[in-house]
Amino acid sequence: MRTKRNQKKCHGTKNHSCKEPESNPWTTHAAHYRKILQKMQKLATTHKLIINPDNERVQKVLGLMTENMVSSGKLFCPCKQSHPLNPAKDVICPCPAWKKEIAKDGHCFCRLFFERQNN
Ligand code: SF4
Fold it and tell me: What contacts 107, CB < 8 A, 6 or more positions away?
């Protein structure tokens, strides 16, 4: 994966917080990010899965996926991609292996989609 980008530095002033609650250090495209998050939440529901409850992980995976979407027009998986992107080889989310990975490990390779716990 690429390194964190656009992370604002906190200078510790009285009324300053390091991160806005809705900010994502992995992408500057907030509107695209929200749409992609909604799409993935819908996809998870349709397939009786859940999105990782760890919001930092979701922000990273979907933030980088958002960057891929903006640059290429497709939802290339940031955990399995080439650097630079190789559209002929890289996989689009959900990738062909996701169900197999979830059945084996309880989550996909990126740890974006998880199986539901029976309780
Ligand atoms: S590993 Fe997860 S996030 Fe990556 S493409 Fe597959 S399903 Fe999507």
Answer: 52, 101, 113, 114, 115
Q: Are 92 and 76 in contact (CB under 8 A)?
A: yes
User: How far apart are the C-alpha atoms of 95 and 57, rounded to whole Å?
Assistant: 18
Q: Ligand 1: distance of its center to the CA of 10 in Å?
A: 32
- Its pTM stands at 0.82
Flag whether pLDDT at 17 surpasses 90.
Answer: no
For residue 61, give the ligand 1 atom closest to its CA: 3
Q: pLDDT-derived band of residue 114, with 50, 70 and 90 as boundaries? A: very high
The closest-lying atom of ligand 1 relative to the alpha carbon of residue 97 is 6
